[in-house]
Amino acid sequence: QVQLVESGGGVVQPGGSLRLSCVTSGMVFNRYALSWARQAPGKELEWVASISAFNSDTYYHAAVKGRFTISRDNAKDTLYLDMTDLRVEDTAIYYCAKVWGPRLLPQALRGPGTQVTVSS
Fold first, then answer.
1. 56-74 burial string, b = 16+ CB within 10 Å, else e?
2. Which of 24, 72, 75, 85 has the smallest CB count inside 10 Å?
3. What does the pLDDT look like over 62-109, one tens digit per residue?
């Protein structure tokens, strides 16, 4: 049974930073592309970033490019999202998902999520 579990969320002031982690189990981690997505209150699920399985190619939503970095540690079966220069509009529940890119995100397996709140 494949499981993804996110952690690292919290409350941070605008301009601050956070690192999210997603530990996986039940899958051969280095065979799959993975993504981060988020859902703000009252809004639809939004794709944030993806990383490929083999050569760690990365792909970002324009709203986070240059501020967020997706990475993976295949030895630890863990996906990361380093977030800097956080803005109030980044407030959302963040999910890791077993998918590449936004197109199939709604059907993708996701974890329970971790809350990120950006507030002064």
1. eeebbbeebeeebbbebee
2. 75
3. 999 999 999 999 999 999 999 999 999 999 999 999 999 999 999 999
